Amino acid sequence: MKPLQPIIPMSIFLHHSLTRDDEIVNWTGVRRWHMGLISSSPYKMRDIGYHFGIEKIKSRHEILIGRMMKDQGAHVRGWNRDSLGILFIGNFDKKPPPEEQWKLGLNLVSTLCSVFLIPLNNVYGHREFDPNKTCPGTAFDLNLFRSQLVN
């Protein structure tokens, strides 16, 4: 396999798993799905497609690492070369993310924007580039999220 060229992130894409967060459907489950380790999966990726995930583990939300930030993601067709992907575990078509997960997401995205000099207006929902997606969820207020980012 040819080594990937390191990315220089210029944007961040937000996603949701469209599943409830529990012991079966979680970050590890999404990774296994992307890698084709679940029989019904159509994928055969080398790793999860996202760079980060945010999920509830036991009693608190945590930031989890997926692909290394120097590696191209696999989360928005046509936009992976220079973007970072963040997956919020949960179905945010039904209700907004919990406050703790929201705040952790704001902290992560604000930090990434600061470190990589990504303009705050280059934070997108997957749905803004694919009409077949709702990411990060129809109940996830993207405009509010972007307005609360700190540079």
What do you see in this structure?
The protein has one domain: Peptidoglycan recognition protein-like (Lysozyme-like), CATH 3.40.80.10. The protein is 22% helix and 18% strand. It contains three helices and five strands. β2 and β3 form a beta hairpin. The protein is globular. The model has no long low-confidence stretch (mean pLDDT 93).
Number of domains: 1
- What is the tally of helical segments? 3
Described by the principal axes of the CA atoms, the overall outline is globular
What would you report as the Rg, rounded to the nearest angstrom? 15 Å
**What strand order characterises the main sheet?**
3-2-4-1-5
Q: Kindly report the average pLDDT value.
A: 93
Give me the CATH superfamily. Answer: Peptidoglycan recognition protein-like
Summarize the structure.
With 151 residues, this protein is of the alpha/beta class. It has helices at residues 27-34, 99-116, 142-148; strands at 11-16, 52-57, 60-65, 83-88, 123-125.
Topology (elements, then pairings):
Elements: E1 11-16, H1 27-34, E2 52-57, E3 60-65, E4 83-88, H2 99-116, E5 123-125, H3 142-148
Parallel strand pairs: 1-4, 1-5, 2-4
Antiparallel strand pairs: 2-3
